[in-house]
Amino acid sequence: MNQSNKRVFLYSLIASLGGLLFGFDIAIFSGAIPFIQPELDLSPAQLGWVASSLYLGCAVGTMIFGKIAERLGRKKSLFAVAVIFGISSIAMGLSNHMNTVVIWRIIAGFSVGGASILSPLYIAELSPRHIRGKMVSINQLAIVIGILMAYITNYYLSFTAWNWRLMFISGALPAVLFLVFLPFLPESPKWLLFNGQREKGRKILGSLISPDQLQDEIDHIDRQKNQEHKGFAIATIFKQGFGFVLLVAIVIAVCQQFSGANAVLFYAPIIFEKAGMDVSDQLFQQILIGGINLIATLIGMRFVDKIGRKKLLLIGSGGMASLLVLIGLSFGGTFIPSYLLSFLVIAFIGVYAATLGPVTWVVITEIFPMQIRETAVGIASAFLWIACFSLTYLFPVIINSFTTLQTFLLFATICFAYFIFILFAVRETKNNRV
After folding, report:
1. Cα separation of 374 and 365, whole Å?
2. Membrane-spanning regions, if any (predicted)?
3. Is the CB of residue 419 less than 8 Å from the CB of residue 318?
4. Number of domains making up the chain
5. Cβ neighbours of 87 (radius 10 Å)
């Protein structure tokens, strides 16, 4: 790895701490479920509302931070994300009523939504094309590290008197870590160049790519800027002929959420309770899930620039559809022995983490040109979080109303339909210029 690539890797690593916040916050609630539900006397619908309220904030946060990042830049926006995250984590842990928890989870969602678009966007704009997929995947790696950290934290804090409160408060620690390292990041050179700060942008970009690529990248940004249409940004997307591209990005984002992976990641205690496990075993199983999530993400990072985005999405959606059918059949042990349930769930998360998990964010950041990128990525990400909100809200109700076999066959059908969509509607993006 040459000096420029080392610098890109270091900056990507720091920026990916936003992804770590993202992963930590979406996973920490799963460990709180066995304790917060009886203490606050939550029905399945109320539990779904408390859990999903975070993602309502995420949907709004992606749009808000998309505009903030467009005006103020990526670095200042990431700083705001970390501050809001730290404050809201402490406030959630000190709450005494369901509605108070919900309000602070919505506020926390603003920062999680912001982190979900800003970290991969910043990394994509910093990275040369030949390593961009791998660098953006570092953000997904940070997300799964955050998820694993949350699962481990949940397991050990479950034995304390303040269990669910300390789980929430612990989210302030990664936020502080992020704030410590943020000053070392430069602003996105492509944002600087696109917004008229040519000398500063040229200097930063020149330290990240080879001299023979520098002028070519600057000329490319200038061409995109000259093509910019002033006016209402969403209307501009359709005027410039990117309406179908936006639709593809939205479907990719939504299907990542309705693939069933997040139902397992967020509600594993409920799923394993259906299999007869006690609370301690449920939380330990989550650590195993978090571990395979991390290992498989590393595998996905290795192949995302070699195999390509579309092939990985096809492998993921097809493999997950098959495993979801097997997971559903394993409940009750009638068709498949129930002792294989843990293995099948871990395999399912492994396939997701190596394919749909990292590739979704790579494609969303690669598919749009610079002049509409913040707005378009914000819209696609908002739909992702709306889907996540819907899934998180409905899953406790669905699994309480239908059999586990019916629930997982529903997710399998969605994954199969997604496979067909990718096959015919999605093009390869690994050679796109960002």
Report:
1. 9
2. 9-35, 47-66, 78-96, 102-124, 136-156, 162-185, 283-300, 312-333, 339-364, 376-399, 405-426
3. yes
4. 1
5. 16
Distance CA 246, CA 112 (A): 22
Q: What is the CA radius of gyration of the chain?
A: 21
> For the chain, percent helix, then strand, then coil, each to nearest 5?
85, 0, 15
CATH number at residue 414: 1.20.1250.20
Q: Distance (Å, rounded) from C-alpha 303 to C-alpha 308?
A: 7
* Cα–Cα nearest to 58, from 391, 360, 394, 386: 386
Q: What is the pLDDT of residues 316-364, one digit of tens each?
A: 999 999 999 998 888 766 677 767 888 898 999 999 999 998 888 788 8
Alpha helices in 227-307 (DSSP H): 233-239, 243-257, 261-274, 279-303
CA distance 100 to 115: 23
Dist CA 378 CA 182 (whole Å): 22
Asked if the model's pLDDT at residue 27 lies above 90, the reply is no
Q: Which domain holds residue 358?
A: 3-185+227-425
Q: Does 195 map to a domain? A: no
Q: What is the pLDDT of residue 10?
A: 93
Cα separation of 316 and 304, whole Å? 12
Residue 190: inside a domain, yes or no?
Answer: no
Q: Dihedral sign for Cα 424, 428, 429, 432, please.
A: negative
Domain assignment present for 210: no
Task: Examine residue 352 and state whether it is found in any structural domain, yes or no.
Answer: yes
Structure tokens at 150: 């949350």
Q: Please answer whether residues 149 and 174 qualify as being in contact, where contact means their C-beta atoms are separated by less than 8 angstroms.
A: yes
**0.70 surpassed by pTM:** yes
Residue 230: the pLDDT is 46
Q: Convert the pLDDT of each residue in 166-199 to its tens digit.
A: 999 999 999 999 999 999 999 998 889 888 888 8
